[in-house]
Design goal:
single chain, 308 residues, alpha+beta, Uridine Diphospho-n-acetylenolpyruvylglucosamine Reductase, domain 3, 3 domains, five-stranded antiparallel β-sheet, 8 helices, 31% helix
Length: 308
Amino acid sequence: MRLLRGSGSTGLSGIPPSRGPFRRPFLEISRETLRSEALALGLAFTDDPSNTDPRFLRSRIRSELISYIESEFGGSFRSNLALSASLVSDDAAVVAQQASQIPIRGTSSEVAIPTAPLVMAPRAVANAAIRNALAVFHFPHGGSHTDIEAVYATAIDGTRRSLSGDLVCARENAELVIAAKETLDTQSDVAVAVGRTFSWNGSSYAVYLSASPALSQTTGRRTALVASDEAGYTVRGVADGDRIDIDGGSTPVSEVLRAARVPTRNRRTWPVVVGDSRIAAVAGIRVAPWARPVLGQPAVIIERDHPL
């Protein structure tokens, strides 16, 4: 059945005699033999009615396809099929052992794989490592072949791709990250008011005036802006096509976030400060030249309650 579905070596290995707490000592004994022995010994047993139900593909394969092959091409098909599964299982075990050497870290909502060992490994080993990562989300299954291909392609070219199950994969610095798709924040734009605080994506920001040179630099938790009544600063999330002015031109906000190594999954909800209908700052990272504070004069400071 798995051969018809295009399964890899793990799927073609069949059901293992042991996996986790489960043991299957009778896998090599036919159903007919087990039934006869149980009857002879007076042991109670139950037949699963779905095993003979033609609505299920596995039932039709057993009753129709395998019976046809044995009648037309010889009666050793079942034993040969079992032998092939055993040989494939041995190969799959070697691949699985090598794949286990590629570290995977993370949680139930996000996993990361170092890109270098993944792309340097033989493709079968890389696929198995990706399958291990996807199994965090699809346990006990390791994802579809389409998903595995997409993740490997991202490891090679760095292009962010969507996966089944509302997942996304992206290359972030030296790692390949698979995570739940970001939920774009529907929070409304927030007006910046000196002396007040506001919340953004679960963090609290304080807004105050300061003329201290030590606080006039935008870095990490702090964004420093020129004090201007005309600017009317507001905070919002990143939008497609956003650009921020730089000395001599402008650059996409997405590139600013990438260069700052902001994780891909967080970039859409990263706070940007808008003033006079232009992007004045990418919070904690960059301020447009026209919005930079003047030394010795009060600056508007937007400070997060913990470092970015």
